[in-house]
Design a protein that fits this description.
The structure is a single chain. By secondary structure, the protein is α/β, with parallel strands linked by helices. It has one domain: TIM Barrel, CATH 3.20.20. The radius of gyration is 16 Å and the shape is globular. Helix 6 runs parallel beside helix 8. The protein has eight helices and eight strands, in the order E-H-E-H-E-H-E-H-E-E-H-E-H-E-H-H. Helix content is 37%, strand content 19%.
């Protein structure tokens, strides 16, 4: 299933509650929450207080992307704050399997993210245990960057790996996703689309969520039809 995940990083922080309400009214499935520590990535965003504050007013799945060093220290804190999915970076975890199992033990879904230059080979042993894999299509840390086109091939290769090892796993792509490249990203094999500026900078935020879903769903049907040929 196609899932649209607006990234809070691109929202207007002077009225976060209203911005979250707009994407939820538009039918967004996930709210993507980027947690940055200024160490793993060269930026600082927000923490558990924001997640907790928004949780009480939203029914969306809270997809918490931990772009931080030593994420194990904060897993439980974010679950308590309201996370439904916790995503950690393979580059930040010394014992990735242990971290993934800890996330599952906390009762939420486990995801692993890869930076653009990180090869898919780092996922081979952990793939069967994942609910979702996130491929970064920009170098993490800042919103508004341009989509790295080489990610399309990486998505296709990950989809092939998933079909063999974990066909039910979601494939999420984050970075530079716009209405214009949504079709190509879904045709490559992704089904969870993270979009920050592509949604929150639109003239009509709620309408843009629906437009992106419509394009993505059509592309998903096309991809399945092509597979049957």
């Amino acid at each position: 299933m196609i899932k649209i995940a607006p990234s809070l990083l691109a929202a207007d922080f002077t009225c976060l509650g209203q911005q979250v309400a707009l994407v939820e009214e538009g039918g967004a499935d996930y709210l993507h929450l980027d947690i940055m520590d200024g160490a793993f990535v060269p930026n600082i965003s927000y923490g558990t207080d924001i997640v907790r504050a928004l949780r009480s007013g939203s029914q969306m799945v809270f997809d918490v992307h931990l772009m931080i060093e030593n994420p194990d220290r904060y897993l439980e804190d974010f679950v308590v704050a309201g996370a439904d999915i916790l995503c950690v970076h393979v580059e930040a975890c010394r014992h990735l399997h242990r971290t993934v199992q800890k996330i599952k033990d906390l009762g939420v879904k486990a995801a692993v993210a890869l930076n653009p230059a990180t090869p898919l080979s780092g996922l081979e042993e952990i793939l069967p245990d994942l609910d979702m894999t996130l491929l970064m299509s920009v170098n993490p840390g800042f919103g508004g960057q341009k989509f790295i086109s080489a990610t399309l091939d990486k998505i296709s290769r990950l989809k092939a790996m998933a079909m063999e090892k974990n066909p039910d796993m979601d494939i999420q792509v984050d970075g530079g996703i716009t209405l214009e490249n949504t079709e190509a990203v879904v045709l490559a094999g992704a089904n969870v689309l993270v979009s920050g500026s592509g949604i929150f900078k639109a003239e009509d935020i709620s309408k843009r969520v629906g437009e992106m879903r419509e394009v993505a769903q059509k592309a998903n049907i096309t991809r399945w039809e092509n597979q049957k040929k």
